[in-house]
Amino acid sequence: MSPSPFSVGLLGHGTVGAAFAKLLQERSEAVGALTGRTPAVCGVLTTSSGSFDEILQSADLVVELIGGIEPARQYALDAMRAGKHVVTANKQLLCEHGEELFAAAADNGVQLRFEAAVAGVVPVVRVLLESLAGAHVERIHGIVNGTTNFILSEMEGGASYADALAEAQRQGIAEADPSADVTGRDAAAKMAILARLAFGTPVVLSDVHYEGIEHLQPDDLQYARELGLGLKLVGTAERLAGGISVRVHPAFLYGGHPLAAVSGPFNAVTLEAEAITEITMSGPGAGGRQTASAVLGDLVSVIRGDSAQPQPTQSLPFVSDISSPFYLHMEVADRPRVLAAVTGLLGERGISIKSVSQRGLGENARLLMVTHPVSESRLREAMKLIGELEFVGSEPRAIRVIEEEFL
Amino acid sequence: MSPSPFSVGLLGHGTVGAAFAKLLQERSEAVGALTGRTPAVCGVLTTSSGSFDEILQSADLVVELIGGIEPARQYALDAMRAGKHVVTANKQLLCEHGEELFAAAADNGVQLRFEAAVAGVVPVVRVLLESLAGAHVERIHGIVNGTTNFILSEMEGGASYADALAEAQRQGIAEADPSADVTGRDAAAKMAILARLAFGTPVVLSDVHYEGIEHLQPDDLQYARELGLGLKLVGTAERLAGGISVRVHPAFLYGGHPLAAVSGPFNAVTLEAEAITEITMSGPGAGGRQTASAVLGDLVSVIRGDSAQPQPTQSLPFVSDISSPFYLHMEVADRPRVLAAVTGLLGERGISIKSVSQRGLGENARLLMVTHPVSESRLREAMKLIGELEFVGSEPRAIRVIEEEFL
Question: What pTM, to 2 d.p., does this model score?
Fold first, then answer.
C-alpha cells in the first residue's frame, strides 16, 4: 500500500522555518516508508505572504516557528481547536502559556509537541515525558543556553566578557541584542518548561530566579581553572523538602560533574532520579538544521499517533532560599588581618569554610574561599558585612558551587 | 474517573525481575494518575513456581526478564500471538531473533519494547526509534558494556588486567565467568540491535566483528594517558560507501571525543547524523533498579498506546575491511635501525605515519607510532612483516584510534 499524504502547515519562514521546509523535503519519502504517511508542506505563512485560515483548512498539522507570544499563541490555539496537531519550537510561548496550550490539546484530542523548544537536538523533552514518565525525577541540571556557554568557554581561554561576546556575535552565535541570553532569561524559560514536565506542576518564567553572566570577571574563570572547577551558566530544577526550586545562575562545577566538560555552543542536561541514578544528554544547542531536526522528530511521532502529553497532578510551592557551597572572592589590602576578620565573621554566622587560598601580595592580594553549604540569605548577609570591613577592597563576589553528588 | 487496572505478567524473578516488581509497586499509583491505568503484577513465573499459561490468561502485557534464548523466545512469541504486549530486557534474544519478534509484534498488532536491552537507563532505543526516526543516522559510537569500562578505568589507574577483573568481580560489576563481557560479545549484541534500529536492516550477532580487552597491556593504557588519549572498548555502527560496518574493539579516543571522559561502570552512546551533528547520552550501564526503570518507561509507553516499531526498509551489505588510524607498539632492541626498517616497510605499503615516540633505552626500548588512516587488511599485512624483522621483540601490537571528526 503506498503511503498517503500528510499535510503540514508551516507558520514562519525564518532560519528554522526554511531549514525545516528543506529537511522535510529531503526526508519525506523516508518518513512515508516508515509511517505510511508522506508529509509535505501545504502552505507557508510569512509576515508578507500566506493566509493562516487557508493553511488551517488544508493542514493535518501546523508547525509554529514564528516565535514570540502573539500571534503564535492564537494560531496554536486556533489550530488545536480546529482539530489540528501542533508542533512548536517556541520556548517563550510554552513557558508563559503552557497550561492553556496543554489544556487545548487535551480538550481537542490533538497533540502538542515541542522538543525543539528546549536544548536544541538534545531529546530531553521526550526522555522526560516518555522514558521517565514513570520515574520520580528529583533534580535537573542543565546547560541550556549555547550562547552563554560559548562566551564562558572563550573567557576560560582568557578573553574578556566584552571580547567573548563580540566573538560570539561575529560567529552568529549571539544576537545583536544578546540580553535574553546573557541575563539568563532564555535559560530560565527552558528550565521552567523542564520543571513543568519533570514535576507535574505549573511553572512560568516569573517563578524562575535567574542571574546572568554579565558580571563575571575573567579572574573568576582563571581561578576556576586553577581550582579544577568549570564555571558554567547552570539551570537547576529540583525537589526540596518544602517544595521545588527552579533557578539559573553561574556556578562552579567540580571536574567530575558530567556538565563540567561541556564547552562551546553546546547544550547538556543531567536528569537525576533515585531509580535511574542519572542520565546525561548533550548536543548542539542551536542551529537551524538541528532545530528543524527536532521538529521533524516530533512530526513523525504525531503521524504515528504517539500520545505522551504532560499532565499536572499537583501544585507545588516554590522554595526561594537555597543552600549550596559558595566560592567567595575578596580583594584585600592586608591579608592576615582580613582573613581573621572574615573567618570570624563567617564562623559567628555558622558558615564553615572548606578551603582558602590567596593570590597576589600586598595591596593587590585576593582571598579566595569555598564554603560548605549555606543558605543564600545567610551568605548574602555575611557578604554585606564583609564588604563593610576595613581592608576589603571592591565589593566581594560570591558564586555558587555545585558538588558532584548524585542521588 | 478512577484509573482502571492494567495487568502485568512477570517472567523471571532474578535481580532485575525482583527490582522491577518492587519499582512497579512504588510507582503504580503515579502511573495510574498519568495514564488512567494502574499497573500491577498479576503473576510471576520463576524456575520453580508459576504457570506461563495462567499468567498469559490474565495479563495485558508480559515483561520478559528470564534472559537467554529459550524459553524466553517462545514465551515472547506466544504472548504476542495471544494479543499481549511484550517488554523485554533481553539483548541476546533481540539480536538473534529480532526479525521474528518484530514481525510477530506487527502481525498481532501489539507492542514489543526493549529499552533495557541496550545501555541500561540510557534511552538510546527510544531516541533512535522516535526522536531520530526521521533522521538519517550515519554513525553510532558506544561504550555499551559497563564491566569492561570499569576494568579499563582501573587499568588506567595502573592495575593489571587480572587485578582489575578481580576488583570488578569483588564489587559485583563482573560475573564469575566474565567472558561475555571481556571478549566484547555482550557489546557486540547491543551494537547489533542499535545498528538494526539505526539503519533499518537486519543485523545479527554473527554480522558483528568483535574483539575484547583481555589482551590489552597496562603499558598501552599508560601510553594512552601520556598521549592524552583514552583507551575504551568502543562499539561502532556506521554507514560506509559500500554498505555498513558493525564492530566492537578497543580503541584510543582523542581527549575531545565525547566518549573519552566516560569512566567506571557507565555506558555512553554518541549518535551522529548530518542534520543533528551529534547527540551523546550517558548513564549507569547496569544495576537491577536502573534496568527496572527502563522497563517501567517502556510499560508506560505501552499503556499510552505509543507505537514506534522498527521497520526494515532495506538490506545493506556489511563492509569488513575498515580504515582507521592505528596506534602501533613495538619492543625493539636497537631503535635507530628498527625505526628505519619499520618506516621503510610502512612507507612502501602506502601507510603514512602521523607521530612517533620512544620509551626506554637499549634492549627495553619501545617504539610507539600513530598512523594516518589505513585499511585494516593492509595494516595487518605490514604488522606481520614488522614482526619478522630482526631487532623487533615480542609480537608488535596495533590498536585502532578514533579521531574526533563529526559529520
Answer: 0.92
